[in-house]
Amino acid sequence: MERALDKVSETLLMGPGPSMTYPSVYQAMAKPTLGHMDPRFIKVMDEIKEMLKVLFGTENDLVVPVSGTGSAGMETVLVNLIERGDPVLVITNGVFSERQAEVARRLGADVDCLAFPWGSPVDPKAVSEQLNVRQYALVSMVHAETSTGVCNPAAEVGELVHRHGALYVLDTVTSLGGMEISVDDWKVDAVYSGSQKCLSCPPGLSPVSMSSRALEKLFSRKEKVPNWYLDMSLVAEYWAGKKRTYHHTAPINMLYGLCQSLYEIMDEGLQEAVLRHQKMHEYLADGLSRLGIEFIVEKSCRLPMLNAVKVPEGTDDAEARMKLLFDHGIEIGAGLGAFAGKVWRIGLMGNTAREACVDRLLAALPKVMGQK
Amino acid sequence: MERALDKVSETLLMGPGPSMTYPSVYQAMAKPTLGHMDPRFIKVMDEIKEMLKVLFGTENDLVVPVSGTGSAGMETVLVNLIERGDPVLVITNGVFSERQAEVARRLGADVDCLAFPWGSPVDPKAVSEQLNVRQYALVSMVHAETSTGVCNPAAEVGELVHRHGALYVLDTVTSLGGMEISVDDWKVDAVYSGSQKCLSCPPGLSPVSMSSRALEKLFSRKEKVPNWYLDMSLVAEYWAGKKRTYHHTAPINMLYGLCQSLYEIMDEGLQEAVLRHQKMHEYLADGLSRLGIEFIVEKSCRLPMLNAVKVPEGTDDAEARMKLLFDHGIEIGAGLGAFAGKVWRIGLMGNTAREACVDRLLAALPKVMGQK
After folding, report:
1. B94 reaches A (C-beta below 8 A)
2. Buried b (16+ CB within 10 A) or exposed e, B56-76
3. Model's pTM, two decimal places?
4. Are B238 and B197 found together in one domain?
């Protein structure tokens, strides 16, 4: 009998994530499972923390890969830092910031949204004005909007948020490992990311970090965190406490994979990896321009790793993507929400940000275009 | 430079989980990552669902491996089915049922605990009496208590709970795949498990299923589920909806692993696997008895896959376990909570329930005993 797993085959992942897993990461994930209290595994955890500190640009004590995908990271920082009734500002310009607002509302926060058009960046001046209108406990934004390919001014907004005394939450799911991130300099109090974007590990883990200001809020909550699984005061005991108290069974082999992907980035050098993303982005942009494919985002605020472009005139969105996938073995991403059917999202994340990947895509695209 | 991952080596995992990952599962996890909307991956998801239905003994439509470890499964069923103020009864006789109570309280439930001594099973008569005292919205229990090695009367309690009109939540983290489970016959409304016990896949996934009665409660909630990541009405759209709407990026390679571990169980036959657990338990019990090591649980309610025994007189708990681990490459589990320092937990889960594993342990144990 043929089984579904037999049909899984190598595919060039140029969508919004997952990206091309490093071959060494597959090998690492296949290392023998250890117990979650094994001293050898504790050392793996310690190395992961130290490497994530470099990527996040932080001296925070609390750096933990949460046992869930990127959205679990979002849930983690918000459920730990929000109490019912807290006034929260979410700055939105895409699916993932709107998701932050939805998560915060479900947690009982009193949420205001400051909305910018999809495809445009956040304007710090408007943020400043909003912060003068109301005193917020927490302000949340996305650094690299995966749904639109826009880079938001994380440092400028951080400066403003701290001036007003609020906690600053930043989503770096798509940017971590592919752009410079300075959690400490940008005054970010809680940050989360995902393993499957520029880290090029499979999905399943969400690196999270919190500042001492964030921990003050966490430890002075009136009620316990209404989510036992993601309560960072408990999770941190296992990841950083002196006694390494068991909380929940860590996803051992996934963490091997994450550890190896971080080795890859350390070996290349973070700056070099960031530079490679930028170079490959420019290389792709040149090629797309020759094919007449247009970006939807102004050059000044484009993300290198997530290239959102207009579906070419006369091309059927879904049909072209399916042809790319099945005839050429290449996945690119569809548009989400308001962009569905109109936008393609081409990922250049981590191990996917290579000349050979871009060349393959640029060779295949003309064969699936203009056939509506 | 030597790195922590280089020191990870094959270890015989005879603790309370993770168990010995099937070699074929490591291979499956190393298959190429696909996108989470790839039609080939959707087929993998569909096969996982069908196989989990067999293991759970259910015709429920909703069967999903939640993107988190076993405790995420606990969080999932409780956060979806509890609303603030709901009267909830948690039947406790170990760490994991006490954790259910803690999760429920954090969700704002009005929790009563019906406590039985650790190491003793739940008494259905006492449950029946308690159910006459108060009308509960939900009653929660653990089938196989991983902290004590006790098997609770899941079918009898289910009958009682339904007679009183409450929803019935059952933890099968340790029993799934190693004992017969009949979610439908036992009238279980929400059940969760873990990938790293009798399924012998690494930790990271929590199979969950909900009955139509549970879904009625979910869809008639007054407020949205206060946890976006684990909201089953959204997760189910991706796993079972006609449009397979994207919710969060699934942990692709972990799901390959789970799929392969389920193939292994299907190939062996579930009944055969269950029988093997029972046989190996008896084989181990004989050997332990020859060594003078005593069980803490009455024979009639011992779990086959989790053997809780007294730390032998004159043996230092931690020292003996560390010697087993580092001199003999065997992990067994420490006691939790009230059992810390007094109890060892010997796991015979999934691929660990083999004669060769038991033989290795029985040969090594005398070498680490009686050296206090």
Report:
1. no
2. bbbebebbbbbbbbbbbbbbb
3. 0.98
4. yes
How do residues B261-308 score in pLDDT, each as one tens digit?
A: 999 999 999 999 999 999 999 999 999 999 999 999 999 999 999 999
Same domain, A96 and A145: yes
Query: Domain of A56: which CATH number?
Result: 3.40.640.10
**Which B positions 129-188 lie with beta carbon below 8 A of chain A?**
none
Instruction: Identify the residue whose tokens are 């960072």.
Output: A232
pLDDT at B372: 58
Average per-residue pLDDT for chain A: 97
Q: Are residues A213 and A82 in the same domain?
A: yes
Question: If you write DSSP's letter for every residue of A349-372 in order, what string do you get?
Answer: -GGG-SHHHHHHHHHHHHHHSS--
Q: State the complex-level ipTM.
A: 0.97
The verdict on a CB contact (< 8 Å) between B228 and A263 is no
What chain A residue is nearest to B259 in terms of C-alpha separation? A5
Please indicate if any CB of chain B lies within 8 Å of the CB of A259. yes
In chain A, count of helices (H) and strands (E)? 12, 13
- Note the pLDDT of residue B371: 58
- Asked if A331 and B13 come within 8 Å (Cβ–Cβ), the reply is no
Co-location of B326 and B292 in the same domain? yes
Indicate yes or no: CB of B33 within 8 angstroms of CB of A226: no
Digit-coded pLDDT (tens) for A295-338: 999 999 999 999 999 999 999 999 999 999 999 999 999 999 98
Domain final residue, candidates A213, A235, A265: A265
- Indicate which of A9, A50, A228, A332 best probes the interface with B, i.e. most B CBs within 10 Å of its own CB: A228
β-sheet bridge partners, residue B346: B307
Q: Which residues of chain A have pLDDT under 70?
A: 371-372
Q: Does A22 touch chain B (CB under 8 A)?
A: no
Q: For residues B14 and B346, what is the distance between their CA atoms, to the nearest angstrom?
A: 6
Q: Quick one: B85 and B233 in the same domain? A: yes
Cβ contact (<8 Å) for B69 and A250? yes
Average pLDDT, chain B: 97
Do B261 and B273 lie in a common domain? no
Which alpha helices (H) appear in B191-303, and where do they start and end? 212-219, 232-239, 252-268, 270-290
Q: Which residues of B touch A256 (CB under 8 A)?
A: 5, 8
The domain total for chain B is 2
Kindly calculate the radius of gyration of chain B based on its CA atoms and give it in whole angstroms.
21
B229 touches chain A (CB under 8 A): yes
Q: pLDDT tens for residues B116-133? A: 999 999 999 999 999 999
pLDDT tier at B106, thresholds 50, 70, 90: very high
Residues of B in contact with A260 (CB under 8 A): 5
Predicted confidence at residue B64, as pLDDT, reads: 97
Q: Which residues contact B60 (CB under 8 A, 6 or more apart)?
A: B53, B183, B184, B209, B210, B211, B212
Residue-range definition of the domain harbouring residue A203: 24-265
Q: Are residues B101 and B46 in the same domain?
A: yes
The CATH number linked to B289 is: 3.90.1150.10
For residue A95, the model assigns a pLDDT of: 96
**What is the pLDDT at residue B1?**
73
Whether residue B203 sits in one domain with residue B173 = yes
**Domain termination site, one of B265, B287, B305:** B265
Omega within 30 of 0 (cis) for the link into A366: no
| Alpha-carbon distance B196 to nearest alpha carbon in chain A (angstroms) | 9
